Amino acid sequence: MPPPRPRQRLEPRDLRSGKWFAPDDLRSFGHRSRMNQMGFGRDDYAGKPVIAILNTWSDLSTCHTHFRQRAEQVKRGVWQAGGFPVELPVMSLSESFMKPSSMFYRNLTAMEVEETLRCHPIDGAVLMGGCDKTVPALLMGAASADLPAIFLPAGPMLKGNFAGKTLGSGTDAWKYWAERSAGNLCDDDWQAIEDGIARSPGTCMTMGTASTMAAIAETLGMTLSGASSIPAVHSAHERLATACGRRAVDLVWEDLRPSHILTGDAFANAITIDMALSGSTNAIIHLIAMAGRAGVKIDLDLFDCISRRTPVLANLRPAGKYLMEDFHDAGGLPAVLWRLRDLLTLDCLTVSGQTLGDDIRDAPVHNEDVILTREKPLSTSGGTFILRGNLAPHGAVIKPTAAEPRLAKHTGKAVVFRDYPHMKQRLADPDLDVTADSVLVLQHAGPVGAPGMPEWGMLPIPTKLLKQGVRDMVRITDARMSGTSYGSCVLHVSPESAQGGPLALVQDGDLIELDVAARRLHLHVSDDELARRRATWVPPAPKYARGYGKLLQEQITQAHEGCDFAFLHHHDTPTPDPEIH
To answer: Which of 124, 182, 231, 526 meets the CB 3.0–4.6 Å disulfide criterion with 148?
Structure first.
């Protein structure tokens, strides 16, 4: 049960920051004198909510290049509402540049967010993120710290362009790379695509992980209504930043915390919107982890149950046609939520101080080719299905809306890659024993095996098949894939191969059956033969002997558990505030 909300507004004497600044003692003398050192007098901060602006800007975070300016606009809103803003950097997770994977560091950022909020004189926070893993990391840390907080999404970038064709980041990169690998695209055109696909600050403008997680944050109630789709460079995004600063101050006075907002019903709403958007498969892992931080238990069966009843209404790439700029102009998330209101719990609280139903009431749709009707959905069931079988005892994930329908029921011979370098080595081999009916299998790409569960799940089509015109095959792995990717890719196989999951026992030539409608993933190998293989299986040696990598190896949970660290799960006994001496 969430803690009860106070019946009346807090008084200045109730502010958490007052523990640092208010007492007449030597320690508080030191705190106040250091504020003087920075040019601030007591009138600037005393008795006012101190609002942390947690900024994930960096010179290598491409999606967040506008965050320096947005932080100043957030400060403006905090000052306007009578608060005291302090900007604090937290680790930026660049999807484009971090190796082995930004997912490897999601939990590290979540830890930093929690501890940054906990150890400083902070009353509330504005969380600035957008690039894929920053969103769950910020929300996970904020849920654990449980101080009043509001999320400011980075917003999607503008549409790309190549020779008059609209480009969507990620999705069209994969598409045109396949054509180049097949010899159908010249170097000059490839260079033009490179120059035209990412033309402004902001996150991927397809319904990839960033846009999916922003929509989930809004549905959960952690953003202002309509915030998730505003393009990064629109003036409305600047106004949003200032509004977030103002609202953060009021959240403190109202003592409205994540624990009041992140309820079981709110997470069910978020899963519903993920399915209706045909959102990124990564959302499943992040939602489970975020719910775990909030003390809410959700499992893969809930995702599949909600998927079966939820139509896909967003006609967005990679599953559909349009991009986030179109989605925003068509009415954005509030319009989709209102169309699905009978599938939602509308009395969930949001950071607005009202309910979700109040926030979205009568939200209009301006373009029904972008936001589809219930009568003519992109799909009658949700964008993501959960598969089970002897190859994935704890589940696996597939996104059928982004796959070729002909492969939804398929049996083929396995072509096995024991790890990513082995795959790269074999894919270009003209003598590789593979056909369009084969099933490509990548092992040792999961949370521990890779490590960090990189986005390797959209296994490239072998070169010789690309030249034959093949553009989709059944592919199976314990890795993730980019939310901008597409294809008949079975992902998040759990338990992973590096931990002795059945995926580790697959060999070349084994028959694998995929039946998406039946939610079935089956390895046609007898139990006796699998037992013989298991008896000779040798687990891989740990990749790290020290540091954060060692911590990850020892503490990370499996994909169906959210890949959080076990010791960071929610506990009934809260972590106490630091002692002020």
So the answer is: 124
401 plus 322 within the same structural domain: no
**How is 408-427 classified by DSSP, letter by letter?**
SEEEEEEEEESSHHHHHHHH
Nearest partner of 313 among 364, 274, 266, judged by Cα = 274
Please count the other Cβ atoms lying within 10 Å of the Cβ belonging to residue 537: 11
Tens of pLDDT, residue by residue over 141-187, are 999 999 999 999 999 999 999 999 999 999 999 999 999 999 999 99
User: What is the three-class DSSP state of 25?
Assistant: coil
One domain for residues 250 and 135: yes
Residues near 43 by beta carbon (within 8 Å), at least 6 away in sequence:
none
Q: Is the dihedral of CA 53, 54, 58, 64 positive or negative?
A: negative
* Same domain membership, residue 306 and residue 212: yes
**Count of the separate structural domains present in the chain:** 3
Q: Say which residue the tokens 């501890």 belong to.
A: 115
- Is residue 306 domain-shared with residue 172, that is, in the same domain? no
Q: Strand ranges (DSSP E) for 63-146? A: 84-89, 124-129
Q: Is the pLDDT of residue 546 over 80?
A: yes
pLDDT in tens, 436-466: 999 999 999 999 999 999 999 999 999 999 9
Q: How far apart are CA 285 and CA 500, in angstroms?
A: 20
CA 219, chain centre distance (Å): 14
